[in-house]
Amino acid sequence: MKLAFRFKEGFNFLSIIGLSLVLFTACMNNGPVKLPLEQIDESTRSYGSHIVQDILKSIRSDEGAHYLIEKEYITPKIYQGIRNSGSAFGESYFLINMMLGNVKSYKLFGGEQTQIIKSLRYKLKVENQDLKFVELKIDLNAEDDLAGYYLYVTSKDGKLKHENLLPKIVLR
């Protein structure tokens, strides 16, 4: 009987330690941490700018999102997502072209860092004056490959508030 009691004591002690460890690590991950522009190195800025140019080119291209498939920097997730959701990307690219008009310029205005993803946020200056804010956000994984991209729009009339115009990547 004494042996069973020791096992229970040890089990309870291990359970408390395990639970404490889980709670401690859960509290450490509070989501993305904002990266000031001065902490984003020049090579990452240049590489991000190159990717943004390609994404904007793909939106204007007849190939659409398939233009990005040939790029060396896309992850398998993006590759499969474009292959599986090609028509959804085609429709959203068409709507984006109609809604934004020409993209006049873009500028890096912020960044975020999670444990494995670095996000670069670009403000787009577009032809359509009815839009208050347009943001293209790209996610780069640890190898600096494109892990996701999003186009957020906020309209001046308040009907659109930070709405992503790109389809969600679906893997099958």
UniProtKB/TrEMBL annotation:
Official protein name in the record: Lipoprotein
Organism (species): Mangrovivirga cuniculi
Taxonomic lineage: Bacteria, Pseudomonadati, Bacteroidota, Cytophagia, Cytophagales
